Every structure is written in C-alpha cells, then in structure tokens.
Amino acid sequence: MQRIDKLREYLQAQPGDSFLQHALALEYIKLGEELEARRLFENLLAQNPGYVGSYYHLAKLLERLGEKDNAIQTYEQGMKQARAAGDNHAYNELQAAWEDLTDY
C-alpha cells in the first residue's frame, strides 16, 4: 500500500501525468484490484490516447475479466496508436497478443 499511497500523492500534485496513472493502475493489478486498475487505464486512455503502453495492460486485464471482445478492440486501438506514433516494438507486441486472442 505504501507505493499506492505515494503514487496517489504524486498524482494529486500532477493529476494529468499519464505515467503516474499507468504506474498506479499496475500497482492495483498487483493487489488484485482489477476494477480500479481498469478504471485508471480507461481514464488515462480517454485523456491521452497516445499513451501506447496502457493498451496492452488494459487488454490483458479485460482478457482476465472474460471480456474477449473488449480486449480485442483494445488491442486494435493500441495497434492503431502505436502505428501512428511509429512505435514498431509496441505495435508488434500488441499484434502478437491480438493474434493469440483471435486465433489469427
């Protein structure tokens, strides 16, 4: 909880910081608080759709929650954003996860 408290403190000072929001969501995943992590990832991506790294983690979370269609859509959105950013590494990771899920 100490890490979460520290991240929340930082976020109060910098509420729009995508990195801090992403890090906090990952901490919630570690604690098994997946709905709070989902809320954070979804808010982050609504505010900053170009924050490519969060698409993978959100989609994996959606897979664990049994929301396959939402996970597929999230991977696809992430691939689109990664391509727009010229981030081939992220694009390839998202595509591989998408292919595993869709049996492409």
What is the fold named in CATH at topology level? Serine Threonine Protein Phosphatase 5, Tetratricopeptide repeat
Architecture (CATH level 2) name: Alpha Horseshoe
Order of helices and strands: HHHHHH
Mean pLDDT figure: 96
- The N- and C-terminal alpha carbons lie at a distance of 40 Å
What is the C-level CATH assignment?
Mainly Alpha
Keywords:
6 helices; 104 residues; mainly alpha; Serine Threonine Protein Phosphatase 5, Tetratricopeptide repeat
Describe the secondary-structure layout.
Elements: H1 2-13, H2 18-30, H3 34-47, H4 53-64, H5 68-85, H6 88-102
Helix pairs in contact: 1-2, 2-3, 3-4, 4-5, 5-6
Q: How would you describe what is shown here?
A:
With 104 residues, the chain is mainly alpha-helical. It has a single domain, classed as Alpha Horseshoe (Serine Threonine Protein Phosphatase 5, Tetratricopeptide repeat), CATH 1.25.40. It has helices at residues 2-13, 18-30, 34-47, 53-64, 68-85, 88-102. The chain starts with a helix and ends with a helix.
Task: Provide a short characterization of the protein structure.
Helix content is 81%, strand content 0%.
